[in-house]
């Protein structure tokens, strides 16, 4: 009989709009994980937080439980816990929840951290760590059978700082869907989006989080203006409508650069593909990443990426062919590379090598490989 898999995602529901508040790559991951489990005919429970406007529609294929309270999640939890064979917990908040409600001995327990608090400190020395979160993250070490990591840096942090042993760890990655992210003609994409063909455009995709570095992208635009170079920065996600976004908008107006920035709000994956394809360059100015999903999606559409050298982006970009890595993560360095591109000193040809580099990252490959490593998963 097929095993019963319970996926926990307390931080965000995969049915929330992506690019708003706390919802980003984690939600994309959970959505694709569930799709994979459906294709492979597992019986699936999804436990997630309650929220407005859920767009999940799995009919009877997934039992979804939106919970209001982490302390009293309702009586159905016990039933689910008793019947679960495999538990897949996403992010540390789900780990704490799992530890409280899933104590049955013969459940195989898998933890996917997605990010580690201490890893941010390693990537950004001035980052103020959340001591409480680190304490709770450390509590998870002996509860889970396996913890999945996405990069060598994350593995080293788990071993050296969180004191995991090698046998507790499994290497995997997030992925991309080649049916959603693929190359389209730039001119057609621009026509559909009503973007002038002569415009020099940059695309930033992400939440308004210091770690994602939108301020670096905006600073890059300012430097360009000083050099009499005019680019337009499109921002997908960006918590459109939030107080924080309005504040940034006001600063842009005060600096007289509003006309160089376009807020796109939360986009569906299909719209995002069109926007990647219409952009001249995708800017990934993150100060910290565990992986770097935007970089992967952009390369899948054959749009050049200028990205911070953090997370796994070095494993996705073929330097000067599909993009450029910026190691000092400074606006001036981003500007220099953008200028090189527009002044035709760097043309990004996307040879086969660049596309081969990302082939292993399709969701199907990623999950097949992950589940083959967890041998009881059949
Ligand atoms: Zn939902």
Explain how this protein is built.
This protein has 378 residues and is α/β, with parallel strands linked by helices. It folds into two domains: 4-175 and 362-374, 3-Layer(aba) Sandwich (Rossmann fold), CATH 3.40.50; 186-359, Rossmann fold, CATH 3.40.50.2000. It contains 14 helices and 13 strands. The chain has helices at residues 25-39, 76-83, 91-101, 117-123, 131-139, 152-160, 186-193, 214-226, 243-254, 269-278, 293-300, 331-342, 352-359, 363-373; strands at residues 4-9, 43-49, 62-67, 86-90, 108-112, 146-149, 169-171, 201-206, 232-237, 261-265, 281-284, 305-308, 323-326. The protein has a seven-stranded parallel beta sheet, sandwiched between helices. Strands 10-9-8-11-12-13 form a six-stranded parallel beta sheet, with helices on both faces. α7 (186-193) crosses α10 (269-278) and α8 crosses α12 (331-342). The longest helix has 15 residues, at 25-39. The radius of gyration is 21 Å and the shape is globular. The termini are close together. The model has no long low-confidence stretch (mean pLDDT 93). Residues 13, 15, 48, 51, 54, 56, 66 line the site of zinc ion.
Indicate the topology.
Layout: E1 4-9, H1 25-39, E2 43-49, E3 62-67, H2 76-83, E4 86-90, H3 91-101, E5 108-112, H4 117-123, H5 131-139, E6 146-149, H6 152-160, E7 169-171, H7 186-193, E8 201-206, H8 214-226, E9 232-237, H9 243-254, E10 261-265, H10 269-278, E11 281-284, H11 293-300, E12 305-308, E13 323-326, H12 331-342, H13 352-359, H14 363-373
Parallel strand pairs: 1-2, 1-4, 2-3, 4-5, 5-6, 6-7, 8-9, 8-11, 9-10, 11-12, 12-13
Helix pairs in contact: 7-10, 8-12
Bound molecules: zinc ion.
């Amino acid at each position: 009989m097929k095993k019963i898999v319970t996926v926990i995602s307390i931080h965000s529901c995969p049915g929330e709009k992506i690019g708003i508040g706390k919802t980003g790559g984690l939600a994309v991951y959970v959505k694709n994980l569930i799709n994979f489990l459906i294709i492979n005919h597992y019986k699936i429970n999804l436990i997630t937080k309650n929220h407005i406007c859920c767009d999940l529609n799995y009919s009877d294929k997934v039992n979804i439980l939106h919970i209001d309270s982490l302390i009293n999640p309702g009586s159905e939890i016990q039933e689910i816990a008793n019947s679960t064979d495999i538990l897949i917990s996403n992010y540390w908040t789900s780990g704490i929840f799992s530890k409280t409600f899933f104590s049955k001995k013969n459940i195989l327990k898998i933890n996917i951290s997605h990010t580690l608090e201490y890893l941010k400190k390693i990537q950004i020395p001035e980052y103020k760590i959340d001591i409480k979160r680190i304490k709770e993250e450390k509590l998870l070490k002996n509860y889970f059978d396996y913890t999945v990591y996405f990069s060598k840096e994350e593995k080293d942090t788990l071993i050296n700082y969180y004191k995991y042993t090698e046998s507790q760890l499994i290497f995997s990655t997030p992925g991309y869907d080649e049916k959603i992210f693929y190359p389209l003609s730039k001119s057609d994409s621009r026509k559909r989006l009503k973007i002038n063909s002569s415009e020099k455009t940059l695309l930033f995709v992400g939440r308004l989080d210091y770690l994602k570095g939108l301020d670096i992208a905006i600073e890059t635009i300012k430097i360009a203006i000083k050099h009499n170079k005019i680019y337009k920065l499109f921002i997908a996600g960006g918590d459109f409508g939030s107080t924080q976004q309005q504040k940034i908008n006001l600063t842009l107006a005060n600096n007289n650069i509003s006309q160089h920035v376009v807020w796109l709000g939360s986009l569906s994956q299909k719209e995002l593909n069109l926007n990647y394809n219409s952009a001249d360059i995708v800017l990934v100015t993150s100060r910290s990443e565990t992986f770097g999903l935007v970089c992967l999606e952009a390369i899948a559409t054959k749009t050049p990426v200028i990205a911070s050298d953090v997370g796994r982006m070095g494993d996705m970009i073929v330097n000067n062919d599909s993009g450029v890595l910026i190691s000092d993560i400074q606006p001036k360095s981003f500007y220099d590379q953008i200028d090189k591109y527009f002044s035709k000193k760097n043309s990004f040809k996307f040879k086969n090598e660049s596309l081969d580099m990302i082939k292993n990252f399709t969701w199907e490959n990623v999950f097949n490989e992950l589940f083959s490593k967890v041998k009881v998963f059949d």
